Amino acid sequence: MLTFYFAKDSSALASHLLLEEVGADYTAHEVPITQGAHHEASYLAINPKARVPALQTPNGVITENPAILTYVAATHPEAHMLPDTPFERAEADALNAYLCATMHVAFAHNLRGARWADSAEAQEAMKKKVASNLHDCAALIETHYLKGPWAMGDRYTLCDAYLFLAPRWLMKAGVDVAQFPKLHAHHTAMLARPATLAVMAVHGL
Amino acid sequence: MLTFYFAKDSSALASHLLLEEVGADYTAHEVPITQGAHHEASYLAINPKARVPALQTPNGVITENPAILTYVAATHPEAHMLPDTPFERAEADALNAYLCATMHVAFAHNLRGARWADSAEAQEAMKKKVASNLHDCAALIETHYLKGPWAMGDRYTLCDAYLFLAPRWLMKAGVDVAQFPKLHAHHTAMLARPATLAVMAVHGL
């Protein structure tokens, strides 16, 4: 049995989608971060990072989307969510790492600038660069890292659940997703999956 | 045969260390980023992200430290660099993701602030927060994510090569590593490994 800790409409959506796709035996527990619940002692005991997502497993807690995605995929082999070869696996890992460390970070400078600078002026300056940075990330993915129709080609794998966030970040930053046809088609295909719709409903989307 | 693209004293050090640890059959090719070599067409054909590291394999190019580390570990099973269980593997993945997406990003705001804001004032404001952010990252790792003596416990695994960067980021930001005894001991243990010393020499360190 797994317990998944998420905040609505956060990046936890990625791991949540994969849990639902593989048919995991899990319960989803909301951490209302807008009310500061991620800083309460009860949650810090689960995830000292004060972030979501976190996944409570029988062995302990896993944090970070790339790690949770890989764990969920590895422990549900019947769902065939991991690529087959070490190279293809590395391609999926690389996309997850890019989403985590570059594109999500670029998006986070919109509302989370206080992580990296205290002054209000600096935080405003960061916001001004978010749309162009996200555009550049999307263009890179579109051109080089989205094989189509799914990220790794013909079959949905663990990184598709994460890639679902990219068009959402673009939309929130006012960047037109339609200028990236493969990414746009990926988003449309994701929205046709029952697991996606089920998880979005839980997130109030 | 593998070709590894690196810049001296960059985060590519992490993947470079693991290649050397496992005794991989590779050649190391320097990309002098201080001279802008990462933006030249010949390198963009290898890594469109204009970053290091990149690993040319017989199947194609892999980018991103977490992906390269996992690939190198997976393709050299005799070196036993991957943890044994899915949960322990996830713990290692989570540490790699944290180093990649949080701690390295926190460090990058020191010299790479132009990625996230155009104004010189904003970039200066970012620099002011680097030391405290890196201190917080190190404290989190020290308390929760470094089992000792190696990251995952008794045995060196793929994430130790990456964790080697953490004390280096601290030192560069003027944070005293000695206040984190486990991290300090980890760094000392790394410096006793022949592979570490061999790679540092290539990086001019």
Task: Give the low-confidence spans of chain A.
Answer: none
Structural class of chain A: alpha+beta
Beta-sheet strand percentage of chain A? 5-15%
CATH-scheme architecture of the largest domain in chain A: Up-down Bundle
Beginning-to-end CA distance, first to last residue of chain A: 26 Å
Count of helical stretches of chain A:
9
Oligomer classification:
homodimer
The tally of strands of chain A reads 4
Per CATH, the class of the largest domain in chain A reads: Mainly Alpha
Summed up, the domain count of chain A is 2
Overall radius of gyration of chain A: 17 Å
CATH topology group of the largest domain in chain A: Glutathione S-transferase Yfyf (Class Pi), Chain A, domain 2
H and E order of chain A: EHEHEEHHHHHHH
The strand order across the widest sheet of chain A is: 2-1-3-4
Biggest sheet architecture of chain A? 4 strands, mixed
Give the largest chain-chain interface (CB within 8 Å). A-B, 49 and 49 residues
